[in-house]
Design a protein that fits this description.
alpha+beta, Jelly Rolls, three-stranded antiparallel beta sheet, 24% strand
Length: 203
């Protein structure tokens, strides 16, 4: 692996570290207390505004109970019966596939929640700096956003300030849920650009 490869791999770890922390049910403050890494540093790493050092990655991997291969996306592919289309798994009940590899700006990744046999408890909520756009591709996703409880189906989109407590779970029995997430720094917003309607010129 070249120096550029290492830099790109470290740059792509922000969303994966965030997902690993949320899987553990840990807050930035809690992780800071056990690792000695400042909450502001952890937040900047998760949002892509700061590239983590190898020392920081090692400490966080140990704290979250994940391997460096998992964080780098080089873990062995799962067996066919273990959802082979998802190459990176963070825990037994969530898989994450990074779609961007750079520092700063917007980050995109795909999440897969496995099928459940019975309705889950209300999703555990977390909050942090940033802004998020979520699009459901398949299944039924339970989004607990502040005091609201929303069930999103394929084609539904949600956007929200991640300082609002939020959490997700599979809302439907018998099938997995697949969804895309775009996550950006605080204040970042998507900018829709569409052409003018037929027959109308641009003034």
């Amino acid at each position: 692996m070249t120096g550029d490869d290492v830099a790109q791999t470290l740059a792509a770890m922000g969303p994966l570290l965030r997902a690993a922390r949320e899987r553990r049910g840990a807050t930035l403050t809690g992780v800071s207390g056990t690792t000695g890494i400042a909450p502001s540093t952890l937040s900047r790493i998760e949002t892509g505004r700061r590239r983590p050092t190898l020392e920081v990655v090692l400490r966080l991997a140990k704290e979250y109970g994940v391997s460096l291969d998992e964080l780098a996306g080089t873990a062995p592919a799962p067996a066919p019966e273990r959802r082979p289309s998802v190459p990176l798994s963070l825990g037994d009940d969530k898989a994450v596939l990074p779609l961007t590899r750079y520092v700063g700006g917007l980050h995109a990744h795909k999440h897969v929640l496995p099928a459940v046999e019975k309705p889950p408890a209300r999703p555990r909520q977390v909050s942090h700096d940033g802004y998020e756009w979520l699009c459901v591709l398949y299944g039924r996703l339970w989004l607990a956003l502040g005091d609201q409880d929303l069930v999103l189906v394929a084609g539904d989109v949600a956007e929200f300030d991640t300082r609002t407590p939020h959490g997700v779970a599979n809302a439907g029995a018998g099938g997995p849920v697949e969804y895309l997430i775009m996550f950006g720094p605080q204040g970042e917003r998507l900018r829709p650009r569409t052409p003018p309607a037929p027959g109308r010129g641009v003034r």
